[in-house]
Amino acid sequence: MRLEMGLVHISDVCFGPQTAIDDHVLFIDRQETVSLLAQEPLFDSIEIDLAHPGESCRIIHVLDVLEPRYRLNGPNFPGALDGVGLVGAGQTCALKNLCVIETGAEQARGRNIIDMSGPATDYSPFGATHNVVLIPHPAKAADMDEYRLAVKKAGLRASVYLAAAAKEVPPDQTQIYELPPTAFNHGPKDLPRISYIFPIHSQQHPTHQKETVFYGSNIQGFLPTIVHPNEILDGALMFSYSAFTYFAQNHPVIQELYRRHQRDLWFAGVVVTVAPVTIVEKQRNAHLAARLASEVLGADGVIATKIGGGAVDTDLMMIYERCEEMGVKAALIIMERYPDTGITFVPANVNALVTPGLTRDPIVLPPVERVIGGDTLFLDNSNPDNTNPRISPLPANQELRLWMGDIVGAISQVGASRLITYTG
Amino acid sequence: MTEKIRVVHYLNQFFAQVGGEEKTDIGPGFKEGPTGPGRALQQALAEHGEVIATLFCGDNYFAEHAEEATEELLRQIARCKAHLLIAGPAFESGRYGVACGAICQAAQERLGIHAVAGMDEENAGAALYCKNVYIINSGDSVVRMIPALQRMVILGMKLVQGAPLGRPAEEGHIPRGIKRNAFAAKPPAERAVDMLLAKIRGEPFKSEIAAPQFHHIKPAAALRDLSSAVIALVTDGGLVPEGNPERMEPGRPTRFTTIPVEGLDRLDPKQFDIVHSGYDTAFANQDPHRLVPLDIMRELEQEGVIGKLHESIHATGGAHAAVENATRIGQGIAERLKSAGVTGVILTST
Question: What pLDDT score does B326 carry?
Fold first, then answer.
């Protein structure tokens, strides 16, 4: 299966008379975009704003981040936006250096922040991209869970709408993602076969009935299954929480395995699974995922990552142990959350852990001139853990004392970050 | 921060110029402004801060009356409205070093202010307090007084301003054993593939996260006779009195609370709250018995199934507890229960 990703580099974005790309500048017809997205009955209205690298600007209440994509010969985000269909083969246009940022109202405790200048840009890729920010205001009677899903859908719609402008533009670069069917191709004998076991969600925060995580499925009761890595890159997956969809579209582990495919390893496919809530389901999914990697994909080694909080650490450790029991070597990417807690659930035989960083590490963001996505944050600057339930909202343009994990894109659980940890 | 940082300096009786060995029994004292090494401290602070007061205590007195001395010193620090406590440097003096560590830790935890101690890394106080207190390694010689104080000020200012800290070697402090972020040469996905390939090839590799060390506890023998047993209720599900007057942490607990329930037949939802960051507390808030079965235990007590229900519930919010803190909380609760004659415990978790 072959996916040709045509990359169009965007050097600037501004509002213009019609949505088009001219000499790497994206012009956006603001009115047309607003009318397209305002159809949603759960929105009272929607605003669109732009943020540029280097600006004294802060985007708050970020819900998700997308790279604009348009598929030339098939549905976009099937099941979530377009109807049923498949992705991962054919040609897709991608706008590089530009992101669609969804913000959502009413996230009283949400602190996902992007700063377009200052120290946060040392950590997050989204301070260096031109950002098209959606600010949908909920209708009065809107159910807030459904509103959140509508915001995510509006993000997909905007992403497809903007990237469609690249249809007629010759790509600056074409990235080929191609793997033969795993069953027929064993690759060279001397290259280790590496698979990726990818828990895409932890049901400790259950998905909404109407949520569209994988090909439009709410993934409740999901069992481990083999997918082609191209499907993850090309719009089959949008994260529910705890990760940003940009990192599915630009999945660091999948891209790394592709980069080294046929060089020092053979990329032997992806197993997608979820972290359920009961111990029996956790054990079953870990068993099945490891079995698929071992006996169906024929993996010599497995990389596994997680999405979610501390509860899913147990699933990850079970996957590790089941793989090793089946003779498949394993390495995990697992985020550290607290400086003194470490990772609580680490069996003694688990010896290959990679950290994308520590989320509860303090960072101070200087005041900014402009804030997009709201005016205030529920934040206690003297106590970023917000252990005091009765804090009053803080003007969001002020100096903020936050944790690294509050910076959108600084630490991605699927293995994107510029960080490692040390013992201080 | 544009306002001057208010600094309190802690010294022993000798450095506070109260007296030498003959004065080591002197209790806590207070002097306005800087004293002795405090002048070098003020110079290091320059225009950024002001040494409001010097606190001191005799080394022996502190060693023998640690609790009272700490209480008195904390009172003084609070009165000064200090932002930062600088203690020492104590160099190789063990009793002085221990006092510096103790007062810094107490000030941090109980007053919520920043604190930096100074002492030699071999000082007994360093081993005791380096995990919880930033301790500048002053070396063992008083000749290093000025550079040590300069280091302490640089670190203290960063703490007050919330500025990022460098590695222990860069800041000059004794490592605390806590994780921090640093920039990596390669992204995590690449490091993970490198590590996996090394593992497959049988080459050396090093996990970036070490497994925690657990101690195995031998369970107590089963109770033979429930009708004479004294049973206590303990939970890590975050039960607190309404309004959370003790400000119990909803996660990462460092302490537990004791809730008297003598004479109570039920936990009235209006009089209790659930404070816990790790689960949906709505159901336990509706009816706290879903977390702590006081109602049923009272019935069993009245029916004579159990001898007696212990007079208080101990509770903490167990999400993301550091193993060390959880161990300390557990020991604290167990000691109280044991000395109260409790013979069995029902632990409810979430």
Answer: 85
